[in-house]
Amino acid sequence: MGELDKESYVTTVLSCIKDYDRDRLSTFLILSIDRRNTPEEAMEVVDLAIKYRSHGVVGIDLCGDPSKGDIKIFLAAFTKAKLNKLKITLHFAEVPASSTVEELETLLSFEPDRLGHVIHVPEHVREEIIERKLGLELCISCNVQAKLIEGGIADHHFGYWKNTDCPVALSTDDLGIFCSNLSNEYLLVAQAFGLSQGDSLALCDRAIDAIFGDEKEKARLRHAISEMRVEYGL
User: Among all residues, which ones are annotated catalytic?
Assistant: First the structure.
């Protein structure tokens, strides 16, 4: 069997989502631009996202080896994504090599809706992230086990971001490598930072503001959390 081209890959994934989606689990697709891509390859990803937006593609990601590539070449691609109302999430300040002030300010110029990792962030950049109230995807086990941070879970920068106005969504990045599912990530954070059940539900509730779903999906999730509060007597 020959290799799938990008469009065939996207349509195959979307077909699987359509066939196996369930009422209690909504699944959407984010297409990724790799830092090693050319500007033309990046634009191809955006064009595919636009073409299949009505079929479940909701946004664009920037990912890949954080020590590679010149991210300035992707400005046109992310500008087009934004103009076409696609959501944007970016791997951000994951390692020191990708955390220069120039790079971080360039990434913020892409007008992202969410940022992932946010580890090596200078104070003035943190202030801008907080002012924009950007959604944050924090990967606890990944960051600790891969030694992207110093120390253990209790030393994770979640402790800083949880006290800001930025919605924080815990993520696995990923289960197959770090052997920790999403429920376990919330348990680890609750234990390390002394969060109650109510605190954990509030964390989830705030994260809804940063999802790439529509208002109906946000309302569904908020209703589910409200039911859990009733169930736990909170």
Answer: 94
What is the residue-wise DSSP string for 20-77? Answer: H-BTTB---EEEEEETT--HHHHHHHHHHHHHTGGGTEEEEEEES-TTS--GGGGHHH
Q: ∠ CA(152), CA(156), CA(160), 5° rounding?
A: 150
CA distance 16 to 28: 11
User: In angstroms, rounded to a whole number, what is the distance separating the alpha carbons of residues 48 and 33?
Assistant: 11
Determine contact, residues 10/55, Cβ cutoff 8 Å: no
pLDDT in tens, 177-186: 888 999 999 9
What are the tens digits of pLDDT across the range 67-113? 999 999 999 999 999 999 999 999 999 999 999 999 999 999 999 99
Q: Tokens 């960051």, residue?
A: 143
Q: Which sign does the torsion angle of CA 183, 184, 187, 188 carry? A: negative
Give this prediction's pTM.
0.93
pLDDT 10s digits, 17-55: 998 867 778 999 999 999 999 999 999 999 999 999 999
Q: Whole-angstrom Cα distance, residue 134 to residue 114?
A: 5
